[in-house]
C-alpha cells in the first residue's frame, strides 16, 4: 500500500474548521516531551503545567491537548485536579488522556471539565469497548489516538504495549471501522516523527483523508515550523497538535494562528 494519491485522485481540500491543539505532556508534575515515546529520552521544560496552559490561553488558544504520561504507562488517569484547575481558570477546551482503561475513567475526566477524552492503546486492543463509549458519551466526546508505523510493505501498522508489539489490524482497517461507527475525531501520530522536529508526515495524512474523509484527523508528531501547520491543513487535516516546537520557541502560537 502506498500513501501517495493516485494520479486520478484530486488533492484534499483544506478544512475551514481547522483547530490548533497546544500540547502539554505531564510526567512527575512537570512539563516534558519524549522523543519517539521513549521515557528514557525525556526533555523537561520550565513552568508548571497550569502556567503553561494559562499562557497558551492568553496567546489565543481555544483548545489544549493534555497528556498524563505517568498514567499512559501505569494506567489510571492522575491529572483530575490539574484538569479541573485548567478548565476553571482558562476556559480552554481540554482534550486529555493517558491511562484511560475503563468507562469510569471517561466519566470522571468528562465530569472534571474535559471537552474530549483521548483513548489510545485500548482503542486498538479493545475497539468494541471504545465503540460502546462512543455510543454512551457521544461521538464528539471521544478522540481515538492511533500511533502508527509503516512496515516494509508500506502498510501502516499499529504498535501496542509500549510499541513493542504490533496489532493484527492495520491503521486503514481500524480507522474505517471507527468511522463507520460514527467516530468524529482521530488523532494520528507517525511514531518515527514523534518529538523529532522532522516535519509531519503529510503523505500519511493525505492518505487518511482520502481513505476516511468523514473523520476529523488531527496531525501529531514532527511539527517544527509554521509551514508545517499549513501543510497539515492542505493535506486535509482538521487540526494539529503543537508540542515541542511551541515549548522551544521555534514559532509562537500567534504565528501559527495567523497561518
TrEMBL record:
The protein's annotated pathway: Amino-acid biosynthesis; L-histidine biosynthesis; L-histidine from 5-phospho-alpha-D-ribose 1-diphosphate: step 4/9
Catalytic activity: 1-(5-phospho-beta-D-ribosyl)-5-[(5-phospho-beta-D-ribosylamino)methylideneamino]imidazole-4-carboxamide = 5-[(5-phospho-1-deoxy-D-ribulos-1-ylimino)methylamino]-1-(5-phospho-beta-D-ribosyl)imidazole-4-carboxamide
Class of enzymatic activity (EC top level): isomerase
Protein EC: 5.3.1.16
Any one GO molecular function term: 1-(5-phosphoribosyl)-5-[(5-phosphoribosylamino)methylideneamino]imidazole-4-carboxamide isomerase activity
Cellular location(s): Cytoplasm
Active site residues of this protein: 25 (proton acceptor), 147 (proton donor)
HAMAP family: HisA (MF_01014)
Family per similarity comment: Belongs to the HisA/HisF family.
Name this polypeptide is given: 1-(5-phosphoribosyl)-5-[(5-phosphoribosylamino)methylideneamino] imidazole-4-carboxamide isomerase
Species of origin: Pseudoxanthomonas putridarboris
